[in-house]
Amino acid sequence: MKLLLVEDNIELAHWVVNLLRQENFAVDCVPDGERADQVLKTQRYDVVLLDLRLPRMDGRDVLARLRRRGNTVPVLMLTAHGSTEDKVDCFSTGADDYIVKPVDARELVARIKALIRRQSGGMSSCLTCGDLEYISDTREFRHHGAPLSLRRREHTVLETLMLRQGKTVSKTILLESVFSLDDEPSADAIDIYIHRLRKHLAKSSAQIMTLRGLGYILRKKDPE
Would the N or C end of the chain have less CB density within 10 A of its end CB? Predict the structure, then answer.
């Protein structure tokens, strides 16, 4: 899953990005409101973390423009001030949640996961594909009850396929879910991650199939 952090405090932004990447999120980070507004016109995210007071464009204005475009991505506002007036103003503009700095790491991750669950419309706490399980609360994969040890980008690719299980997922969607704006992925990056995942799933009844020219699909193997 991919997040956008809009934060002008360099040290805080660095800390939050590292925290979220440790939680297997792909993260883009921009330092001002104008840049955020431009990025949100072209990129798709699962959650946006938006500082309230930003240079070049206020966080409220970024949020208002986002909602006027009909974009319903969950937005978690970050602010150094927790006044009732600020909270009411943010919620009335279209924010989904609100957290006051200094940010507690566990609370931030928990709130992000709660927004993802809410956006997914009550997604089951455990998705399955054959004997492969995905625990939505922890975003963990398990095979025959044992955790599946994956690298961060492998995890993101498999998660994207699992959440769209049975549907074709294009290479473009996988690239967008895995790489941030600052990355320069090679043309065969997704093929490499798919190859590694197939090794991980060699003994599983879940399989990743290639649909040439279309993308990939995660589905249960047909019985022999």
Answer: C
